[in-house]
From TrEMBL:
InterPro entries: Cys/Met-Metab_PyrdxlP-dep_enz, Cys_b_lyase_bac, PyrdxlP-dep_Trfase, PyrdxlP-dep_Trfase_major, PyrdxlP-dep_Trfase_small. Its cofactor is pyridoxal 5'-phosphate. This is Cystathionine beta-lyase. Keywords: Lyase, Pyridoxal phosphate. Its EC number is 4.4.1.8. It catalyses: L,L-cystathionine + H2O = L-homocysteine + pyruvate + NH4(+). The keyword Lyase applies. The keyword Lyase applies. The modification N6-(pyridoxal phosphate)lysine is found at residue 222. NCBIfam families: cysta_beta_ly_B. It comes from Lichenicoccus roseus. It holds the Pfam family Cys_Met_Meta_PP. GO terms for molecular function: cysteine-S-conjugate beta-lyase activity; pyridoxal phosphate binding. Belongs to the trans-sulfuration enzymes family. The gene is metC.
Length: 409
């Protein structure tokens, strides 16, 4: 397991970078002038005026660069955020889109074509699964769901000549499997496919392009925004050819990001390092407490040795998020688990995560799985640990577990 001293150094390095990333006074390529303000101003607009037709045509030809052409193609505020996210992710280009869901679907549309084949982990985010089973299917793209923890030989057996994309989500939604991303990348590239990763849980603590990922996705709604008050997504690449495909796809789909949400996300980034450090430590403390409880079968926290794929987390990650799962013993009913969640007071009930507030949500029967990965072994919940006092969070869970036991008698 990564030592506390190593983790602390990682967070300090991130905090220093985040203070400077995406600021006008730190960016020679900035498209606007901040006049010395620490935070770049919000730039709203649609029409961009040019002094001559020649200037308009020259600028329009540079749609792959962060150049002002038309408001729907990006504003200076968006460009600042794109540069900051690319730096955090370790890529070269980022496309900001309207939501985390759009960040998942836009690269699928950009890199898949009719008659193509996509491999999707069975633990994938629910809206991405629905998109594959409806929109992609109508477009003539076939999706095969695979066990997130499958061995390399099994992945080879699933690859086809028309496999264009291998998708990964590590850790998985609700089940929290940490995938062997370098292996997935190696096999995908052997067959000429792109590896797309939903890296929202691993923001900063997993560097996707160091492990062979072609396209990395962030739901900026979560940790980057950090305050549960915006909807935004990001798609990052490290290859110029991939950037042209992605940028073309985003523009053709009319993907647009609100300048106000971009500005709020930039503001949220400034405190991301200290928030993640605090929330990560609190989440591990809560997870260890739950692991010792008699009501709990297992805790699905990637930093715990008993979690699925912990060996890959220890090898590839420099830290952990504050989102994890809890599986209760089979003797507790789903109705009892629901009563426990309803009884919580400090933990709110909500489907998002990554903000400053703690949240709880039942994992079944709300999730959809088709393979072995759907079997938790008992009813489960997903917990997101925010910035509240850890002792109060544990006391809240202790009260909830009392309700769980009473509802099962």
């Amino acid at each position: 397991m990564t030592s506390p001293m190593q983790v602390s150094a990682v967070w300090r390095t991130l905090s220093t970078r985040l203070v400077r990333a995406g600021r006008s006074d730190q960016d020679d390529g900035a498209a606007d002038e901040a006049h010395g303000f620490v935070n770049p101003p919000v730039s709203r607009g649609s029409t961009v005026l040019f002094p001559t037709l020649r200037a308009l045509r020259q600028n329009g030809a540079r749609r792959y660069a962060h150049e002002l052409t038309y408001g729907a193609c990006g504003t200076p505020t968006q460009f600042h955020l794109e540069r900051a996210i690319a730096e955090i992710e370790g890529g070269t280009h980022t496309q900001i889109v309207s939501s985390g869901s759009a960040a998942c679907t836009t690269p699928l549309l950009a890199f898949l074509g009719a008659g193509g084949h996509c491999l999707m982990p069975d633990c994938v985010y629910g809206p991405t699964r629905r998109f594959c089973d409806t929109m992609l299917q109508r477009m003539g793209v076939e999706t095969t769901y695979y066990e997130p923890m499958l061995p390399e030989a099994a992945l080879h057996a699933l690859m086809r000549p028309n496999t264009q994309v291998v998708m990964a989500e590590s850790p998985g939604s609700h089940t929290f499997e940490v995938q062997d991303v370098p292996m997935l990348a190696r096999v995908a590239h052997e067959y000429g496919a792109k590896l797309i990763l939903d890296n929202t849980w691993g923001l900063h603590v997993f560097q996707p392009f160091e492990h062979g990922v072609d396209v990395s996705i962030q739901a900026l709604t979560k940790y980057a925004g950090g305050h549960a008050d915006l909807i935004l997504g990001a798609i990052t690449v490290a290859d110029d050819n991939d950037w042209q495909v992605l940028r073309d796809g985003a523009l053709q789909l009319g993907q647009y990001a609100s300048p106000d949400d971009c500005w709020l996300t930039l503001r949220g980034l400034r405190t991301l390092g200290v928030r993640l450090e605090r929330q990560s430590a609190s989440a591990l403390e809560v997870a260890l407490w739950l692991e010792a409880r008699p009501e709990v079968l297992r805790v699905l926290h990637p930093a715990l040795p008993t979690a699925p794929g912990h060996e890959f987390w220890a090898r590839d990650f420099t830290g952990a998020s504050s989102l994890f799962g809890v599986v209760f013993r089979p003797g507790f009913s789903q109705a009892a688990v629901d009563a426990m969640v309803d009884a919580l007071g400090v933990f709110g009930i909500g489907e998002s995560w990554g903000g400053y507030e703690s949240l709880a949500l039942p994992s079944n029967p709300t999730i959809t799985r088709t393979l072995e990965s759907s079997r938790f072994g008992g009813p489960a919940i997903r917990l997101h640990v925010g910035l509240e006092d850890t002792d109060e969070l544990i006391a809240d869970l202790e009260g909830g577990l009392a309700v769980l036991r009473a509802a099962s008698e």
